[in-house]
Write a structure and sequence with these properties.
Layout lengths: L1 H10 L24 H18 L7 H16 L2 H9 L2 H19 L4 H9 L1 H15 L14
Length: 151
C-alpha cells in the first residue's frame, strides 16, 4: 500500500508554465569519496609505513595496518587530549597525545600483540606512530579526527 501511495503521489505532480523542463545535473565536484588532498596525505603515510616498517616480518600485516589506521580517530576522542588541544600549548597537547596513544595501544594488546610489542620495544616505531598520530589529530579547537585513514 505504501508503495502504491508513493506512485500515486509521484504521478500527481503537475508542472505548470513551460512545455519543456530542464533539470540541471547534480554537481560532481563535491560529495562522496576521498578528496585528492586526503589521498595524497594517505598515500604518503602508506609510503612512509612501507619504507620504514616493510622489513618487519608482521604475522598479519593487514590487521596491523587496520589497527594503525584506526588509532588517530581513537586518540583524538580522548577527553584529556581534547582539553589539552583546546586549553594548552602544542607541547602539552603533544604530551597528552602520547599518553592517549599509550592507552590506545595498551587496549589493543589483546587484539594485536605484534603492534603492542613493536610500540613498546622499538623506539623508532613508537616515535613514527606518535608523530603520525599527533600530526593528523592536533588542532586548537580540540575536535576529533574524522578523516579516514587507509594504509
Amino acid at each position: 500500500d505504501s508503495y502504491r501511495a508513493e506512485i500515486k503521489q509521484t504521478m500527481s505532480i503537475i508542472l505548470k508554465g513551460e512545455a519543456e523542463y530542464i533539470i540541471d545535473p547534480a554537481p560532481t565536484g563535491s560529495g562522496g569519496g576521498i578528496r585528492e588532498a586526503e589521498m595524497d596525505l594517505l598515500s604518503s603515510i602508506l609510503e612512509s609505513f612501507h619504507n620504514m616498517w616493510g622489513n618487519i616480518n608482521w604475522q598479519d600485516v593487514d590487521q596491523v595496518k587496520k589497527h594503525i589506521a584506526g588509532i588517530p580517530a581513537t586518540v583524538s576522542k580522548d577527553t584529556a587530549y581534547q582539553n589539552a588541544m583546546k586549553n594548552s600549548d602544542k607541547q602539552n597537547a603533544r604530551i597528552e597525545s602520547e599518553r592517549a596513544l599509550s592507552r590506545v595501544v595498551m587496549n589493543m594488546m589483546k587484539d594485536n600483540m605484534e603492534l603492542f610489542k613493536q610500540y613498546n620495544d622499538n623506539p623508532s616505531f613508537k616515535k613514527w606512530l606518535s608523530d603520525m598520530v599527533f600530526d593528523l589529530t592536533y588542532n586548537t579547537k580540540g575536535e576529533t579526527f574524522d578523516g579516514e585513514m587507509r594504509i
